[in-house]
Amino acid sequence: MNLLGINIKRYRETKSITLRTLAKSLDISPSFLSQIETGKAVPSLDTLKKISDSLSTTIGNLIGEDQKENASPLLRLEDRKSINKISSGMDMYLLTSPDQNKQMEPLLFKMNEKASSGKTLYRHFGQEFVLVIKGSLEISLNNTVYALKKGDSLYFNSNTPHSFKNTEKGETEAIWVVTPPTF
Predict the structure, then answer these.
(1) How far, CA to CA in Å, does 28 sit from each of 9, 25, 79, 85, 102?
(2) What is the CATH number of the domain that holds 24?
């Protein structure tokens, strides 16, 4: 997570944005943003998306995905990049090699019991596809809650206010495809 904090600080300083100004625009405390930048705290997925939008970049750039493009379309398991503990009890894995020309971002979410995207619904430009491969997942779109179990899938416009949580007593895994790439 330290690379994430370093990159947030680098992007913020490159744009001459003070820590207090960015924190205020994100509706978080300056001390929490400072803890994120120093690797002492982990932002929720929603907060991380807001940070990347505020800094006019992608989550992928903040986690260092842009470091090196790979000429091969194959990504081996051992080369998979993870965004560890992006939210309490949740890990995300990038399922493709870095490529500035890709038009979708396939991700693997591994969520511990009760892990969620946060208490608030969030929205952004694009579309999303979710396939549950283990466990069960609850996805809220506006005021409608969809309960997905292994093998179920859901497709929706990302501008619909949404959130999700693991409803399994154990780990849930889901393939999530987002377009355009935001990671």
Answers:
(1) 15, 8, 34, 19, 32
(2) 1.10.260.40
Residues 84 and 153 in one domain: yes
For residues 131 and 151, give the distance between their C-alpha atoms in angstroms, rounded to a whole number. Answer: 7
Residue 18 CB neighbour total at 10 angstroms: 11
Note whether 83 and 45 are within 8 A (CB): no
Domain count, the chain: 2
Structure confidence at residue 89 (pLDDT): 85
3-state SS class at 148:
strand
SS3 59: helix
The pLDDT tens digits for 135-166 are 999 999 998 999 999 999 999 999 999 999 99
- DSSP secondary structure of 76-88: -GGG--EEEEEET
Residue 136: which H helix or E strand, with range?
A: strand 136-141
The boundaries of the domain holding residue 55 are 2-63
- Residue 102 contacts residue 179 (beta carbons within 8 Å): no
pLDDT digits (tens, 9 = 90+) for 70-123: 567 888 888 888 876 566 788 889 898 877 667 888 999 999 999 998 888 888
Are 126 and 160 spatial neighbours (Cβ–Cβ below 8 Å)?
A: no
Token representation of residue 42:
């982990």
Question: What's the whole-model pTM score?
Answer: 0.67
In this structure, the answer to whether residues 98 and 160 fall within a common structural domain is: yes
